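Anyone able to model this chain together with adenosine-5'-triphosphate?
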Amino acid sequence: MANETGSSHFIDDIIQDDARSGKHGGRVATRFPPEPNGYLHIGHAKSICLNFGMASTYTGTCNLRFDDTNPAKEDIEYVDSIMEDVRWLGFDWEQRLFYASDYFERLYEQAVALIRLDKAYVCDLTGDQVSEFRGNFHKPGRNSPFRDRTVDENLDLFARMRVGEFADGARTLRAKIDMASPNMNMRDPPMYRIKRSHHHRTGDTWCIYPMYDFAHCFSDAFEGITHSLCTLEFEDHRALYDWFLAQVEFPHRPQQIEFARLALTYTVLSKRKLLELVTTGLVDGWDDPRMPTISGYRRRGYTPESIRNFAERIGVARRDGLIDVALLEHAIREDLEPKAARVMGVLDPLKVVLTNLPEGEIVWLDAPFHPENPEMGSRRVPLTRELWIEQDDFREEPPKKFFRLAPGREVRLRYGCLITCNELVKDADGKVIELRCTWDPDSKGGNAPDGRKVKGTLHWVSASHGVQAEVRLYDRLFRSENPADDKDGGDWKNGLNPESLQVLPVCYVEPSLADAAPGGRFQFERLGYFCADKDARPGKPVFNRTVALRDSWAKAEAKE
Ligand code: ATP
Ligand code: MG
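re: yes, here you go
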């Protein structure tokens, strides 16, 4: 929520102050810098909303920059999915699409400039030796024996690194800062490594690649970024970010500001782990509706608005915390409630025969798509002799307070009429397989003219006109509230919820849903919000349950 100054969080405060004081010439330029080594997840959505949101609040700009400096794990598939997801979330980088790899030549020049200033040197220590020389928190590091190479020698060696004279890992270019610094990141960090690896954009042009800390600050500077927003794990890297930029003259000096990474209950947001779920087939791809990826949420039926509202509501904090996933579920319900058409589907069907409605006769009933939004219109639903209702809506021996159907009971069919259960048909095992009922033709529309009270209202589908559908119900992917916190040292995948997916192959939905286009969102009355899936086959729609109707978050809020 906005405070008296109209700002909503500490980063907003900083940017607002800077805009007022004229720092950065009053400009606001942010960027979202994903590494194309996986699909975007809900944590990235928080960062996207923050970066694009600040730019829009302060009539600035936000760039999309692929941070593609690590060729081994990167792929064009990820680049494409990231652009699709950012657009879907509702943000526009206009013509400002950048790739760190486009800066490889300029970065190389910056490195040469640092060598000329005697601020960088080529080091021949092996990886293990580098770690050993670095010391630790309690012990200062030792200078590399190669630290005092002359500028000319460094220029020569670095040029030869570039043309491929040395083996992978044989040498690095390191910043010359301070091996005794209490900040480990300042102990002569690597700037370039030798790695023969095909890059998805630069091909085999380069065999040396810049390290993140070196590439990121200069990429920000090249683009004229003013506020470089990143997550807390970079807090200790800020000194290095500033050090690199302080060595050279730039018209503008970007400023790094750290915020807390989003962590959600029952959810894993590590790209490495999400990739492992995909590659081991534990989920059905990056867009499996159980995945916390943007593409997973999209397929599940989430809307961009719901994700943006969620990001707004959780705000931006300076310290890490765990957010209740129920808040995200609340955001999607809140968004779909006024928008989603109400329809009827039966997930666990039980046959009802209306013995006084002749075969072939159809009673067309008008059913509005939304109780409060008449402008959403209505459709006609057919009442026929044979219907499906939910198994759960019938009890042979109803307990107290069960107001649905039971022998001798009368209930209301939604949009339909009153029916009374007269007779049960059972199979050889004594299981009820059919209810023989009568309908009251005078109750068409839902109420009897004599005003008699009927408590239960059931959803239903015509057996002759309804459409068979597959429905997929989802539960949380992980059993534990904080699956990231795998203290027991076991395999984190042991924490997966074996019941996270339940496929119901034989459900029935009303005829209006026969050709529901993938992505279409509905409320199945009494059952939750559902989204038509791309797996639909002609005549057999597939629906994902986005979320059930019960809102534990709203309930908790009401209690407070
Ligand atoms: P990696 O370990 O691969 O770097 P990453 O999650 O940091 O993983 P990036 O592609 O580097 O992925 O992230 C792009 C941007 O999104 C970065 O600015 C990062 O700080 C931000 N980001 C990533 N995860 C979260 C999260 N859980 N909450 C908020 N922001 C995040
Ligand atoms: Mg990262």
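The two ends are 18 Å apart (CA to CA).
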